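Example 3.2
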Amino acid sequence: MLNARMPTKTLFAALLASLALAAPAHADGPEVHDAYARTAYPGAPTAAAFMVIHNHGGADDRLIDARSPIAAKTELHTHIDAGDGVMQMRHVPEGFALETDGEIVMERGGHHVMLMGVGETLEPGDTVPLTLVFESGAEIILDVPVMSDEEAAAIGHGAMDHGEMDHDDMGEDHMDHETVDQ
Protein backbone atom coordinates (compact mmCIF):
# COMPACT_ATOMS: atom_id res chain seq x y z
CA MET A 1 0.00 0.00 0.00
CA LEU A 2 1.27 3.46 -0.88
CA ASN A 3 2.05 5.81 1.97
CA ALA A 4 2.86 9.52 1.63
CA ARG A 5 5.67 9.13 4.20
CA MET A 6 7.50 6.44 2.17
CA PRO A 7 10.91 7.41 0.77
CA THR A 8 10.76 8.45 -2.89
CA LYS A 9 12.57 5.32 -4.20
CA THR A 10 10.25 3.04 -2.21
CA LEU A 11 7.20 5.00 -3.37
CA PHE A 12 8.39 4.81 -7.00
CA ALA A 13 9.03 1.04 -6.72
CA ALA A 14 5.59 0.49 -5.18
CA LEU A 15 3.98 2.56 -7.94
CA LEU A 16 5.76 0.53 -10.65
CA ALA A 17 4.73 -2.73 -9.00
CA SER A 18 1.08 -1.65 -8.84
CA LEU A 19 1.17 -0.59 -12.52
CA ALA A 20 2.64 -3.95 -13.51
CA LEU A 21 -0.20 -5.73 -11.75
CA ALA A 22 -2.83 -3.51 -13.39
CA ALA A 23 -1.40 -3.77 -16.92
CA PRO A 24 -2.99 -6.49 -19.05
CA ALA A 25 -0.51 -9.29 -19.57
CA HIS A 26 -0.40 -11.28 -22.80
CA ALA A 27 -2.31 -14.25 -21.45
CA ASP A 28 -2.53 -17.67 -23.01
CA GLY A 29 -5.82 -18.51 -24.63
CA PRO A 30 -8.23 -16.97 -27.11
CA GLU A 31 -7.97 -13.40 -28.36
CA VAL A 32 -10.23 -11.73 -30.96
CA HIS A 33 -9.10 -9.46 -33.82
CA ASP A 34 -10.89 -7.56 -36.60
CA ALA A 35 -14.44 -8.28 -35.43
CA TYR A 36 -17.32 -6.76 -37.34
CA ALA A 37 -21.01 -7.45 -38.00
CA ARG A 38 -23.21 -7.08 -41.08
CA THR A 39 -26.87 -7.37 -41.95
CA ALA A 40 -28.15 -8.73 -45.27
CA TYR A 41 -30.10 -5.50 -45.84
CA PRO A 42 -31.30 -2.51 -43.77
CA GLY A 43 -33.84 -3.62 -41.17
CA ALA A 44 -33.08 -7.33 -41.68
CA PRO A 45 -34.10 -9.62 -38.80
CA THR A 46 -30.72 -11.38 -39.12
CA ALA A 47 -27.10 -10.35 -38.86
CA ALA A 48 -23.77 -12.12 -38.84
CA ALA A 49 -20.52 -11.43 -36.98
CA PHE A 50 -17.07 -12.14 -38.38
CA MET A 51 -13.62 -12.08 -36.76
CA VAL A 52 -10.33 -13.88 -36.31
CA ILE A 53 -9.83 -15.71 -33.01
CA HIS A 54 -6.21 -16.53 -32.09
CA ASN A 55 -5.09 -19.01 -29.42
CA HIS A 56 -1.82 -17.59 -28.13
CA GLY A 57 -0.16 -20.60 -26.61
CA GLY A 58 -3.02 -21.81 -24.48
CA ALA A 59 -4.14 -25.42 -24.57
CA ASP A 60 -6.29 -26.62 -27.45
CA ASP A 61 -9.79 -25.21 -27.03
CA ARG A 62 -13.08 -25.03 -28.90
CA LEU A 63 -15.50 -22.17 -29.54
CA ILE A 64 -18.78 -23.82 -28.49
CA ASP A 65 -21.33 -21.02 -28.23
CA ALA A 66 -22.10 -17.36 -28.74
CA ARG A 67 -24.72 -15.16 -27.09
CA SER A 68 -26.15 -11.74 -27.82
CA PRO A 69 -29.00 -9.94 -26.04
CA ILE A 70 -30.14 -8.32 -29.31
CA ALA A 71 -31.06 -11.64 -30.99
CA ALA A 72 -33.74 -14.21 -30.24
CA LYS A 73 -31.22 -16.89 -31.22
CA THR A 74 -27.43 -16.83 -31.70
CA GLU A 75 -25.65 -19.76 -33.34
CA LEU A 76 -22.28 -20.76 -34.77
CA HIS A 77 -22.66 -21.32 -38.53
CA THR A 78 -20.61 -22.29 -41.55
CA HIS A 79 -21.20 -22.61 -45.28
CA ILE A 80 -20.79 -25.88 -47.16
CA ASP A 81 -20.87 -26.77 -50.83
CA ALA A 82 -23.85 -29.09 -51.30
CA GLY A 83 -22.13 -30.61 -54.34
CA ASP A 84 -24.02 -28.65 -56.95
CA GLY A 85 -21.94 -25.49 -56.58
CA VAL A 86 -24.53 -23.83 -54.36
CA MET A 87 -23.31 -22.90 -50.90
CA GLN A 88 -25.61 -23.70 -47.99
CA MET A 89 -25.48 -22.31 -44.46
CA ARG A 90 -25.41 -24.83 -41.59
CA HIS A 91 -25.60 -24.57 -37.82
CA VAL A 92 -22.48 -26.14 -36.23
CA PRO A 93 -23.62 -27.23 -32.74
CA GLU A 94 -20.22 -28.74 -31.86
CA GLY A 95 -18.50 -25.41 -32.55
CA PHE A 96 -15.05 -24.80 -34.01
CA ALA A 97 -11.71 -26.22 -32.87
CA LEU A 98 -9.08 -23.72 -31.72
CA GLU A 99 -5.69 -25.40 -31.58
CA THR A 100 -2.72 -24.19 -29.55
CA ASP A 101 -1.11 -21.27 -31.41
CA GLY A 102 -3.86 -21.62 -34.03
CA GLU A 103 -6.77 -19.50 -35.14
CA ILE A 104 -10.39 -19.62 -36.23
CA VAL A 105 -11.06 -17.39 -39.22
CA MET A 106 -14.70 -16.34 -39.20
CA GLU A 107 -15.43 -14.73 -42.55
CA ARG A 108 -18.24 -14.25 -45.00
CA GLY A 109 -18.87 -17.45 -46.91
CA GLY A 110 -17.29 -19.51 -44.09
CA HIS A 111 -17.53 -19.80 -40.32
CA HIS A 112 -19.48 -17.00 -38.61
CA VAL A 113 -21.76 -16.12 -35.71
CA MET A 114 -25.39 -15.93 -36.90
CA LEU A 115 -27.80 -13.62 -35.07
CA MET A 116 -31.45 -14.45 -35.76
CA GLY A 117 -34.53 -12.58 -34.64
CA VAL A 118 -32.64 -9.31 -34.24
CA GLY A 119 -35.07 -7.00 -32.50
CA GLU A 120 -33.61 -3.70 -33.66
CA THR A 121 -32.42 -2.15 -36.90
CA LEU A 122 -28.64 -2.37 -37.21
CA GLU A 123 -26.75 0.20 -39.24
CA PRO A 124 -23.06 0.92 -39.81
CA GLY A 125 -21.70 2.62 -36.70
CA ASP A 126 -23.88 0.59 -34.30
CA THR A 127 -22.36 -2.08 -32.06
CA VAL A 128 -23.55 -5.60 -31.30
CA PRO A 129 -22.89 -6.97 -27.79
CA LEU A 130 -21.56 -10.50 -28.22
CA THR A 131 -20.19 -13.12 -25.84
CA LEU A 132 -18.06 -15.96 -27.18
CA VAL A 133 -18.02 -19.12 -25.04
CA PHE A 134 -15.18 -21.64 -25.14
CA GLU A 135 -15.05 -25.26 -23.99
CA SER A 136 -12.33 -24.32 -21.48
CA GLY A 137 -14.81 -22.06 -19.70
CA ALA A 138 -13.25 -18.88 -21.09
CA GLU A 139 -15.68 -16.21 -22.25
CA ILE A 140 -14.85 -13.17 -24.34
CA ILE A 141 -17.26 -10.24 -24.19
CA LEU A 142 -17.19 -7.99 -27.26
CA ASP A 143 -18.88 -4.90 -28.62
CA VAL A 144 -18.76 -5.75 -32.33
CA PRO A 145 -19.03 -2.77 -34.70
CA VAL A 146 -21.58 -2.99 -37.53
CA MET A 147 -19.74 -2.16 -40.78
CA SER A 148 -20.57 -1.51 -44.40
CA ASP A 149 -19.02 -3.72 -47.09
CA GLU A 150 -16.48 -0.99 -47.80
CA GLU A 151 -15.42 -0.73 -44.15
CA ALA A 152 -15.16 -4.53 -43.85
CA ALA A 153 -13.03 -4.72 -47.02
CA ALA A 154 -10.68 -2.11 -45.54
CA ILE A 155 -9.80 -4.47 -42.65
CA GLY A 156 -9.25 -7.35 -45.04
CA HIS A 157 -12.56 -9.18 -44.86
CA GLY A 158 -14.41 -10.15 -48.03
CA ALA A 159 -17.59 -8.53 -49.21
CA MET A 160 -19.68 -11.62 -49.99
CA ASP A 161 -23.40 -10.88 -50.19
CA HIS A 162 -24.98 -13.05 -47.49
CA GLY A 163 -28.40 -12.33 -49.01
CA GLU A 164 -27.52 -14.43 -52.09
CA MET A 165 -26.95 -17.64 -50.12
CA ASP A 166 -29.26 -20.63 -50.74
CA HIS A 167 -31.30 -21.01 -47.57
CA ASP A 168 -33.89 -23.41 -49.03
CA ASP A 169 -32.37 -26.89 -48.61
CA MET A 170 -30.53 -26.78 -45.32
CA GLY A 171 -31.59 -29.99 -43.62
CA GLU A 172 -32.82 -30.39 -40.09
CA ASP A 173 -30.39 -27.87 -38.61
CA HIS A 174 -31.82 -25.16 -40.86
CA MET A 175 -33.69 -22.28 -39.34
CA ASP A 176 -35.56 -19.87 -41.54
CA HIS A 177 -33.75 -16.64 -40.67
CA GLU A 178 -36.77 -14.59 -41.63
CA THR A 179 -39.21 -16.22 -39.21
CA VAL A 180 -37.53 -16.80 -35.87
CA ASP A 181 -39.95 -17.38 -33.01
CA GLN A 182 -39.61 -14.47 -30.63
